[in-house]
Amino acid sequence: MSNILRLAAIALAFALAWGALSAQSSAKSNDNWAGQAFQRAQGLQFQNFSRRKKYRRRELGGFWFNERQGFFNYRKLRTEKRRKRGFSFEGIDPQPERPPSPDDGFAIYRPVKLVALSNPKLEAPIPAQVLASTIFHELRQTETALKVTAQQRDAIINFYRLNNFSPLWATSEGLGDKARRLLALFAKAEEDGLNPLDYLPPSLASFGDDASSVKGNVISLARLDIGLTAMALRYAEQIHSGRIIPKRLSGYYDIEPPALNLGKVLYELSYRPLPDLYLSSLAPPHPAYTAMKAKLAELQAKASQDNREPVPAGRRVKSGERDARVVLIRARMVELGFLSEDAAMAWMLGHADDNPDTNTYEETLDKQLSKALKAFQRGNKIKQTGSIDKATVEALNSRSDEDNVQKLAMNMERVRWLPRELGQRHVFVNQAAFELRVMDRETISWRTKVIVGKPETQTAVFSDEMETVVINPYWGVPQSIIRYEMMPRLARDRRYLDRLGYEVVNSKGRIVSSGSVNWWAYGRTIPFGVRQPPGDDNALGRIKFLFPNSHDIYMHDTPTKELFAEPVRAFSHGCVRVENPREMAERVLGWERKRVDDMIATGQNKNISLDKHIPVHLNYFTAWPDEFGKVVFYPDIYNRDTRLDKALNTITIAASQ
Fold first, then answer.
1. How would residue 167 be classed by pLDDT, with cut points 50, 70 and 90?
2. Distance (Å, rounded) from C-alpha 563 to C-alpha 269?
């Protein structure tokens, strides 16, 4: 019995201890709840505890509500701008319900698959002429080293079949004059930003090879003829439509390069005595392409002659200090145009009597040279110290001309993607330049600064037609902004939107008070729309320009005018904000300014349909001519040059295999 009593006493003690621990744990839990309640009162976000039970939760407008604990654990809450009166949506544009990824591009560019230029099932009468019959048999081979696209293969085989497999370029003696002109054109493909080696037939050692070594060898001549035809068609397509399929490059490209009728090209090549001139005529007709080609030739020549002595690394040299490198840097500043030769010579002559040691003044970083260095540093976007430092030496030694050669080649590729006819009057936006131009044919009739999408919400590249100008627009708040940015506040204060002046519209199109809506009752799908009425604080400003498209992108005014003073203007969700929208309305509507101002002054929402739709082209060029035809280079704000460069290298590798 004593043992039983002893065990009972131990059990009782254990129960009392367990109760004390439970009470302590409960107290701690209550303390946590009180702390959490304080956090909720302060509008702060906190995390779930890892050991907490999983209570039933329901989704409310994109965030979770724990029914027992009564707090929100936001899955997504964007950075908010605040004003005295509360939350502000100034300058926020409509955006897709599924926001794009940071660059919305594809990991690897996948070029068009190449196939063998042959058809073992080809059926046709065997030609009597020996070279023609050999071409027929070569086209029926199972294996061939010549690779083309499926469309090119079909066009080439069909063309030979329709012409009884007669050779286009070769004779029993070798290559004719037409073939030599063709090879000479391919050899200088670099002038158009193309890679010459992409067009060298596999059976030739070089573009200067006249095929005399295979004279009388009909098999080699037949393969050469087919190879030249394939290279001519490849060149025609690539100089006309480009080497890249833009939609495979990035999801932000929504354009189809102008197509080429391959059968017509082969027909033209067959009868024209100067096939090289015909192929050259397939290049884009736009003046921008001509300007880029001229600039490319200039830089290529300059790069080939650039034997400049590099500036050696060394200590930092400030104004007034001596260094042997000063002599070389002074000469480089004169060469680059940051210091006139007369000014440099005048300074040295003026100090010739100061010291009999000539090196003393030649090697001194004087104030004039320091000022020139600041200008150079400013142009190269490095700290303007006026000193000789590491960043300055690196900039002086950089091969900017070589970089610009590649940049021009990429932008000439982009020009090939443009429609051949842009429109007699059209709107042209260059996202990389943050500029909009209204063009009358090739003349800039008006231009203005613009703001484009942020790198994470880039403005897409596409063409469409402007149809409507909206005066005093409403801003329809996207569902994504309602869910992630408005619902957290509405859950705490139903009248939040009423106080800010927003309108809530139900499924019947009636305006209701936000305070009358039970915002707690809805999940991810919210059966209400929210819009901001016209006014000075409207996110779209006083005017918007509509060109309906699948990207929900348009142009509009904005209340955040101060952003136009920034050099890099990538701030929107994808839409294009226009600095001077009233002047733009004058031009697209053909109205006087007073009529535009008077209509805005009414405060009434008004949709005005254009009598004639105006083509709109949203593009991305990191090199483009200014109003004087001089090519200007722009920063690659979306990193699209890097992606395009990799894709072009992929094409080159595929063509060589």
1. very high
2. 54
Q: Do 633 and 538 share a structural domain?
A: yes
Asked if the model's pLDDT at residue 443 lies above 90, the reply is yes
CA 69 to chain centre: 46
Q: How far apart are CA 333 and CA 343, in angstroms?
A: 11
Residues in the chain: 657
Range of the domain at 583: 418-478+532-653
Nearest Cα to 109, choosing from 653, 657, 585? 653
pLDDT, residue 185, reads 97
- Nearest 5 degrees, angle CA 38-CA 42-CA 46? 70
Residue 605 lies in a domain: yes
Identify whether the C-beta of residue 60 lies closer than 8 Å to the C-beta of residue 491: yes
> Is residue 426 a contact partner of residue 465, using CB atoms and an 8 Å limit?
no
DSSP 8-state secondary structure symbol assigned to residue 387 = S
Residues 228 and 332 in one domain: no
Distance of CA 304 to the CA centre of its chain: 30
Asked if residue 401 lies in contact with residue 302, where contact means CB atoms within 8 angstroms, the answer is yes
**Which ranges constitute the DSSP H helices of 83-217?**
130-139, 150-162, 177-187
Burial class (CB in 10 A: 0-12, 13-18, 19+), 144: middle
Binned at pLDDT 50, 70 and 90, residue 58 comes out as very low
Chain centre to alpha carbon of residue 506 = 38
DSSP 608-640: EEEEEEEEEEEE--SEEE-TTS-EEE---TTSH
pTM, 2 dp:
0.74
User: Where do runs of H (alpha helix) occur along 337-454?
Assistant: 341-350, 358-362, 367-379, 390-397, 400-417
